[in-house]
Structure formats: C-alpha cells, structure tokens
Amino acid sequence: MKSTSPINKTWLMAGVAAVVVLGGAGIYAMTRSPSEAPASAEADHAEGEEGHAEEAEAGDGVLVLSAAQIEAADISIVGVTGGGGGETRLSGRVEPMIDARAAVAASVGGRVERVLVAPGQSVRAGQPLAILVSGDAATLRADADAAQANAVAAEQAHSREESLADQGVVARRDAEVAHAQALSAQASARAARARASAAGSPNASGRLSVTSPISGVVTSVQVGPGGFAAQGGVIAEVTNPARVEIVFNAPPTLAAQVRAGSSMRVQGPAGEFDAVVTGVAAGAGGGSGATVIRARPTGSSLPPAGSAVTGSIVTGGTAGGFTVPSEAVQTIEGASVVFVRTATGFRVAPVLVGRQADDRTEILSGLTGAERIAGANAFLLKAELAKGEAEHGH
C-alpha cells in the first residue's frame, strides 16, 4: 500500500481550508447583498415620492416658505378687517384756508401817502403795505400822550399825599383819594394807548403804516398814492399759497356718514393722492343746503388754488364685508387672488373684489375674515409662484 508523504498531506489540508473559507465568504456575500440593496432602493423611492409631492403641492398654488424666508423677503402678514360699503364721488376745488387770506383794511380814514407793494409781491407778516396820513390817527396819538401825562401827574400827586400823611400834615384819607385818582389815570392811559395801537400806532403827525397780518403774496392793491382810504376800506389783499385745502360740496345726507379723520382718495391735475377729512359742515353750502367737506393731503402737496379735483370716499359700511390692503390683492391668469398664510408658507385664495378707496380693497367673497394674508410685498409671492410653475413645466 502506497503511503502519502507528509508534505502532500499538509498541502491537501490547506487547500480544503481555503475552499471552505472562500465558500463561506461567497455565501456571506450572497446572503448579505440582497438585504442591503432593497433598503437603498426604498430610500431612493421615498425621496422621489416626497419630491414629486412637493412639486405637486407647489403646482396647486401652494408656496412652502419658512418664517425666516418670509422675514428676509420683508413680506408683511396682515389680518382681514371688517368694512366695505359704498364709494361716493365728490367734486371739489382747491381753495385757500380761512386763515390764509387777508383783506387788509384801513383802521382809520386818511390820505394814502405811499403804496409799498404791488400785486404778485411776496410779503411777510407785519410788513408795511401802505402809509397813510390821518387826522383821526393824530387825535388818537394825542389822546394817548395826554392820558399818559395825566397818569404821571396823578402818580406824583399820590406820592406827595403819602409823604404828607406820614408826617401828619394831611389826613390819611387824602392820601387814599390820591391813590385812587392815580389808578384811574393809569387805566385811562392804558385805554388811550390801546386805541392808538389799534389804529396802527401813528406818530405825532398822524402818519401810520398799514401792515399785512400774514405772510403770503399780494393778490390785489385797491388804493394808489394820493387817494383817500375810508375807515374800513380795503388797502390790499394777501394770500398765502402754501396754506390751501380741498373743499367739496356734498349731498346733505353725507353729513351723517363722514367724520373728521376719514380717509379719501383725490384725483387732481397731476394724478391721484391720499387725503384726510378735516371738517364736515352740514348746510354750509349756502342756499343749496349742501354739506361742505374740507380735506387736506397726506404726504403730498396740493395743486394751486383754484384747481378742480374729484374725490372718492367710502361711506355706508356694510355688515359682514371685509377689506384688505390693496397691495395684498394680486392678479394671476386674470383672476384676483390673495396669499393666505399657512403653517408651511402660503396658499393662493381666489377672491371677488369690490370697491377700492384709501389703499384698501373690498372683498365680496373668498375669505371668512379669520385668515392672515400677505400684505406688503405680496407681489414677490406671485413672482415666486410663476417661477415655480415654469420650472415644473420644464
């Protein structure tokens, strides 16, 4: 019987061991790989479904934005407020304010010595417009001087009587009478000075200046040098062009619906601007009985006095109506929409709009009133929505 050498036996055992090891590795690989591959495929499939879900959600008019993104885009979130009502259009005119017009008259009659201004010239408050020479004014100045002299004399007499009473030369009662006479003389002097001041503070010759009570522009001069100005006669007219307001003639029924502080939209020669009502006077329109509404602009200047304007104001609020800022309403494919805030961003809500006034738009349907919507910079959401739909289409 042939025997096997020790060396061959050793190599045979090593080969069997290698086969066993390699076989075990192959079995491990075959049993491990199938279990790992499906897990990776399921993850990829889940991510794909999530991406398709987000795309489908964005395509349905929903924008996914975080609070940080909304804040970075400076998109304001506002509430839906109650309101609505009818829009009333009014015709009006830009007019100077009551305190912006002055018809400067002569307080005393006299001869016009000089005229110091001409129509169109700018003047300041207290600036002389004309110089008059008046006999009545001279009399007033003389009376003031005489009254002042009497007051001085009465005060000196009172001082002497007080000194004599202290020495026992005269009775104390005489000093008291002198005191009363001094007080009366002082009162008469004050009254005389006031009359002279009201007349224009003339000098001893009766010459006085007629001054403008306001700053503005001279619109007319009614007298000339050498002429005579009667007491109360108009010397010149001055208007301050910077102090103007809008005056509307409204129906009498509007007096109960408009209040001071109400906002309105005004259309002028240079375009539209916002205004606020400063006063409502029922029946102030003369014989017509119309209501006069006065308004001033907010954040803009008015056209020159005499310009015709039209205004619109919302009156007669309706129950259950809603209003939103006009910038919150956007147009998408010809339809009016607003962007309603959600937990993950915004969704598009179609709305039916009504009247618009004072930067607010009436919402007739589409909102419940409990929503929070995008206000300022809502157009950015419209642009982002259009961008997402374009990318989804590709």
Give the gist of this structure.
It is built from five helices and 24 strands. With 394 residues, it is an alpha+beta fold.
Number of strands: 24
Shape: elongated
* Structural Rg: 46 Å
* Oligomeric assembly: single chain
Determine the N-to-C terminus distance: 84 Å
Largest sheet: 6 strands, antiparallel, barrel
- Order of strands, main sheet, comes to 4-13-16-15-14-17
Query: What class would the helix/strand composition place it in?
Result: alpha+beta
Strand content: 25-35%
Helix content: 25-40%
Give me the number of helical elements: 5
Query: Any idea what the CATH architecture of the largest domain is?
Result: Beta Barrel
Find the CATH topology of the largest domain: conserved putative lor/sdh protein from methanococcus maripaludis s2 fold
Stretches where pLDDT is under 50 for at least 5 consecutive residues are: 1-59
Average predicted local confidence, pLDDT: 80
| CATH domain class of the largest domain | Mainly Beta
Helix and strand pattern? HEHEEEEEEEHHEEEEEEEEEEEEEEEEH
Tally of individual domains = 4
Descriptive report:
This protein has 394 residues and is α+β, with helices and mostly antiparallel strands. The protein has four domains: 58-85 and 320-393, conserved putative lor/sdh protein from methanococcus maripaludis s2 fold; 86-97 and 243-315, Efflux pump adaptor protein, beta barrel domain (Elongation Factor Tu (Ef-tu), domain 3, Beta Barrel); 98-134 and 206-242, OB fold (Dihydrolipoamide Acetyltransferase, E2P) (Beta Barrel); 136-198, Helix Hairpins. Helix content is 34%, strand content 33%. It has helices spanning 6-59, 67-72, 135-167, 172-198, 379-393, and strands at 62-64, 77-79, 81-82, 86-96, 101-105, 110-115, 122-123, 128-133, 207-211, 216-221, 228-229, 234-239, 244-250, 263-268, 271-281, 291-297, 308-315, 322-325, 330-332, 335-341, 345-350, 352-357, 360-365, 372-374. It has a six-stranded antiparallel β-barrel. Helix 3 runs antiparallel to helix 4. Residues 1-59 have low confidence and may be disordered.
